[in-house]
Specification:
This protein has helices at about 5-10, 85-95, 125-135, 215-225, 245-255, 285-295; strands spanning about 15, 20, 35, 55-60, 65-70, 115-125, 140-150, 155-165, 175, 180-195, 200-210, 265-270, 280. By secondary structure, it is an alpha+beta fold. Strands 4, 5, 6, 7, 8, 9, 10, 11, 12 and 13 form a ten-stranded mixed β-sheet that branches. Helix 5 runs antiparallel to helix 6. The chain starts with a helix and ends with a helix.
């Protein structure tokens, strides 16, 4: 195996010593130790269609708009060779999707993180791919997200402008860089504050993207000092205040047990590649996020 392949297996926690996962490429082996390398089965050269239910908001010969649930990966990659949105789209759209925009990511012009819910558009032909890709590159796509964060920004609205790059110490994380990253801009406004008015426990924030970097909203809100509730990568474990009533105790449990980053892509608008008019879609909160906001409103 090549060094890069071994590094990939380390990153995927597929190398163990006596059941203990080894993730550090600088780990020193010693005589007499036994290591197990779990090599995954080869990935098919092209994604295969799979019968995975889709929540379709809109569809025509050019585009399909999906309301993606949390937990669904957008396209095959290391650790997720199948069971993705791409596999579902291939099964649903058939041969019309073949090769559009690339073999491994047919139809995909933008992504949502696995545990982010909400609206995503895919395309069915090269003309639509060219049109939507150009709109994303020119930042003319309308995208708005709702995030539930710990605490509350001092200002009711603002603009976060930084460089974002991959964390040199943890390749699975992104971070704000002083230099060498890619420009990233997020506009935000506080929609609602929860808890004590003078020191809110949490806030509902709307974010609009001027760029589309990996984990951009999660990184930027953490940089602002207000990580998303439930974010296992950028959030910090937080203790809720001591409950004074059974109702508060129940609400705090919903908040602290929230199982994913509280982020939902609720608004998507773009110029249709054939109709030459703007079409716009909205998505209601999924049940888990609706329950989280309802719990916060009881504080």
């Amino acid at each position: 195996m090549s060094r890069s392949r071994i590094r990939q297996l380390l990153d995927e926690s597929r190398i163990t010593r006596g059941g203990e996962k080894i993730g550090d490429p600088n780990h020193r082996v010693k005589p007499g130790e036994h290591y197990k390398i779990d090599v995954p089965a080869p990935i098919p050269p092209e994604p295969q269609g799979q019968n995975i239910p889709l929540s379709i908001v809109y569809e025509d010969d050019d585009v399909i708009v999906i309301d993606k649930p949390a937990g669904l990966v957008v396209h095959p990659a290391a650790g997720n060779p199948d069971g993705t949105l791409v596999n579902a789209l291939i099964a649903h759209c058939g041969a019309s999707l073949t090769g559009v925009g690339g073999v491994m990511r047919p139809g995909i012009v933008h992504r949502l993180d696995k545990d982010t819910s909400g609206l995503l558009v895919a395309v069915k032909n090269e003309r639509a791919m060219h049109s939507l890709a150009k709109q994303f590159a020119n930042h003319t796509i309308e995208r708005a997200y709702h995030a539930v964060v710990w605490g509350s920004p001092r200002l009711g609205d603002g603009r976060i402008e930084t460089q974002i790059g991959r964390n040199p110490y943890d390749r699975k994380r992104m971070g704000v860089m002083r230099a060498g990253g890619k420009d990233a801009v997020t506009r935000y406004r506080v929609v609602e504050r929860f808890g004590d008015e003078t020191r809110p426990l949490a806030s509902l924030i709307e974010c609009r993207l001027e760029t589309g970097r990996t984990h951009q909203i999660r990184v930027h809100l953490t940089h602002l000092g207000h990580p998303l509730i439930g974010d296992p990568t950028y959030g910090r474990a937080r203790q809720a205040p001591r409950a004074k009533t059974p109702e508060q105790e129940e609400a705090y449990k919903v908040i602290t047990d929230f199982p994913r980053q509280a982020l939902h892509a609720w608004l998507l608008g773009f110029q249709h590649p054939s109709l030459h008019k703007t079409i716009r879609f909205e998505s209601a909160y999924p049940a888990d996020m609706a329950d989280l906001i309802a719990a916060l409103r009881r504080l």
